[in-house]
């Protein structure tokens, strides 16, 4: 292959990579387990519901975790939500959630917003979660 043909092929390959999604999978592909979301529901009831409401509806002072919440996080890597929750929540004791508890909460929030469960649990690995897109179109209710 001559240099020009090689350069054209390389440029075409790079263009295809740039046009494709960076993460490769999204929250509609079953990225958490039912058990993980159930554990997240228990953690939510104990640590989060007093501010965000029993049904994730929010209050006058605290945002809900359904509906507009999804639109706000749409298109971002799931790792961003994981990092935010781990750093800033719960509001009365920020940074006190373990990575496993934070991951379970993410699973619960996904389920509450209509994302399907899968056969493999979410990992509390920020880099791995960074490769999963938070999909909005089918989650918002």
Topology readout:
Elements: H1 3-19, E1 25-26, H2 34-47, H3 49-52, H4 68-73, H5 78-88, H6 99-112, H7 126-129, E2 132-133
Parallel strand pairs: 1-2
A few lines on this structure:
The chain has 141 residues and is mainly α. It has one domain (23-133): Cytochrome Bc1 Complex, Chain D, domain 2 (Orthogonal Bundle), CATH 1.10.760. Helices cover 50% and strands 3% of the residues.
Describe the structure using short key phrases.
141 residues, mainly alpha, Cytochrome Bc1 Complex, Chain D, domain 2, two-stranded parallel ribbon, 2 strands, 3% strand, globular, disordered N terminus
Could you explain the architecture of this structure?
- The chain has 141 residues and is mostly helical.
- The chain has a single domain (23-133), classed as Cytochrome Bc1 Complex, Chain D, domain 2 (Orthogonal Bundle).
- It has 7 helices and 2 strands; from the N terminus they run αβααααααβ.
- The protein has a two-stranded parallel sheet with strand order 1-2.
- Helix 5 crosses helix 6 (99-112).
- It is globular and about 35 Å long.
CA distance, first residue to last residue: 53 Å
Residue-averaged pLDDT, rounded?
A: 84
Examine the coordinates and then state which fold CATH places here, giving the name of the CATH topology. Answer: Cytochrome Bc1 Complex, Chain D, domain 2
What is the number of helical segments per DSSP (H or I, 4+ residues)? 7
CATH superfamily heading: Cytochrome c-like domain
Q: What does the radius of gyration come to?
A: 18 Å
How does the helix and strand content classify structurally?
mainly alpha
The CATH class name reads Mainly Alpha
Percent helix range: 40-55%
The shape, in one word, is globular
Q: How many discrete domains?
A: 1
Largest sheet: 2 strands, parallel
As residue ranges, the low-confidence spans are 1-23
CATH-defined architecture: Orthogonal Bundle
The counted number of beta strands is 2
Largest sheet: spatial strand order: 1-2
**Approximate strand percentage:** under 5%
Topology as H/E string? HEHHHHHHE
